[in-house]
Amino acid sequence: MDFKDYYALLGVSESATAEEIKKAYRKLARKYHPDVSKEADADARFKEVGEAYEVLKDPEKRAEYDELRKYGQRGPGGFEPPPDWQSRSHFGGGGYTEADAQHFSEFFEQIFGGGRASGGFQRQHGHRMRGEDIHARLALFLEEAFAGCEKQVQFTTHEPDPQGRLPPRMKTLKVKIPAGVRDGQHIRLKGQGAPGFGQGEPGDLFIEIELAPHPLFTLDGHNIQLTVPITPSEAILGATITVPTLAGKVNVKVPKGANSGQKLRLKGKGLPGKHPGDQIVVLQVVVPPTQSPETEALYAQLAKLESSFNPRMKLGV
Amino acid sequence: MAHQDNHPITVMLPEQSLEFSFHEFCERGEVHGEFVVKLVNYGVIAPVRECVKSEWCFDLAALQRLRKAQRLQRDLKMNLPGLALSLELLDDVNRLEREVQQLRQQLRQLLGE
Fold first, then answer.
1. Which residues of chain B are modeled with pLDDT < 50?
2. Cα–Cα separations (whole angstroms), residue A198 to A124, A129, A202, A205, B105
3. A133: closest chain B residue by CA
4. pLDDT for A123
5. Whole-number Å distance between alpha carbons of B30 and A129
């Protein structure tokens, strides 16, 4: 078991006052709150600082922790509390004001113990109560969202054991994702949430879809956007070019006199659904990296012919 | 140990149809109705419409927002005006981040990277 340095986690010294500890905790809680922070480990960091504050804010627990910190053994298998260690603090009876007891570390459980058995999780027998809804996230590639797919969703639920407690239980479901789900969209699995109590029905499982960025396509709701390079001659003369879509390659007619930034709409080639999206092709004129002497000579002739065209007129030059 | 169910479950896309009555909304959010009324009054959440007997109806987005509001209030000890402002600012940050991400990707494509 690893020793948790609660002072280091909150970035305070051992001699910090209660006010300094509170201040440090509040600052870190704002920084790492999972609904605020974008950092990948925000959830874990938030739980860590919550656990540290839970101990250090209480003079009795802090004194116990300081004692352990001083005398606890750090053997080859990690930290071990002294053999006769017994905490004087009790965490039952809904004492968790800053964090949820079930999220505390093994270290915390070992030292202060009993948190998981607190009355907060027990529900009265004979009382009818609907099971809790569970919210989970599922990352998909754009291709999977376009075509629909079958995925495994893993989530934690709390189901009652014979003692009436609600230990966490990992559950895995195979889910058929319909074609055309969008980024941020929620899908609902009725009755797959936590079980109800008494005659109460189970909760639902809500899955939020998270689409991974695609190297070529960008999404705007149901529409898919793609930047397509064309040559200067294709832009001036017009052309039929091949363009990739998520449903395969299609031929697209570039109109005469097309320009960079011009958009062409491929109806119904976006994400499928009741109202299918479109694919928006954004044209980008690209100059070939090298020119042959013949091409240069022809461009020199063109330059003379287009001398009346000033593309910088709006700049006043 | 993880429980495995091998039968694929067909899902429904609730955004078009799923609405909760005021009572169901409070039950799912595990909150008192008074708190929901306060959140509506502060503009933190909004009912989609009034349904049966002039009662409010909420959609799934409102339920998600309610849960977020609960977490922020519990964890950061925020009052309602602070909560309303924070959620609005977080929405703005998320929208702007999405836009920046899209524009960066388009720029990379334009530059041929």
1. 1-3
2. 9, 7, 10, 20, 52
3. B28
4. 45
5. 11
Which residues, at least 6 apart from A60, have a Cβ–Cβ distance to it below 8 Å? A88, A89
Multiple choice CATH, B19-110, 3.40.50.2300, 1.20.1080.10, 1.10.1660.10, 1.25.40.10: 1.10.1660.10
Check the CA dihedral A204-A157-A154-A150 and report its sign: negative
Rounded to a whole number, what is the distance in Å from the CA of B22 to chain A's nearest CA?
15
The answer to whether the Cβ–Cβ distance between A282 and B64 falls below 8 Å is: no
- pLDDT recorded at residue A89: 62
A130 shares contact with chain B (CB less than 8 Å): yes
Tell me if domain A134-211 and domain A218-305 are identical in fold.
Answer: yes
* Chain A, nearest residue to B86 by Cα: A36
Give me the CATH code for the A6-121 domain, please. Answer: 1.10.287.110
Nearest to A187 by CA among A204, A203, A208: A208
- Residue range A215-240, pLDDT digits in tens: 899 988 899 999 999 999 999 999 99
Characterize the bridge pairing of strands A239-245 and A223-230: unpaired
Report pLDDT for A116.
46
| B20, HSE (Cβ side, Cα atoms, 13 Å) | 19
Assess B11–A contact: CB distance below 8 Å, yes or no.
Answer: yes
How is residue B9 written in tokens? Answer: 């479950």
B105 contacts A188? CB cut-off 8 A = no
Which residues from chain B sit within 8 angstroms of residue A203, using beta carbons? 28
The DSSP-derived string for A234-256 is HHHH-EEEEEEETTEEEEEEEPT
Total Cβ atoms within 10 A of residue B18: 17
Q: Does A263 touch chain B (CB under 8 A)?
A: no
pLDDT category, A127, cuts 50, 70, 90?
Answer: low
Which strands sit side by side in the sheet containing A134-140, from one edge to the other? A134-140, A205-211, A186-189
pLDDT digits (tens, 9 = 90+) for A257-273: 999 999 999 999 999 98
Q: B1, B10, B13, B86: best mutation site toward chain A, by most A Cβ within 10 Å?
A: B13
Q: Quick one: which of A221, A228, A233 has its CA closest to A288? A: A233
Identify residue A112 by its one-letter amino acid code. F
- pLDDT, tens only, B59-77: 888 998 998 999 999 899 8
What are the phi and psi torsion angles at B46 (to 5°)?
-135, 135
Q: Does B15 touch chain A (CB under 8 A)?
A: yes
Interchain pair A169, B8: CB under 8 A: no
Closest residue in B to A49 (Cα–Cα): B75
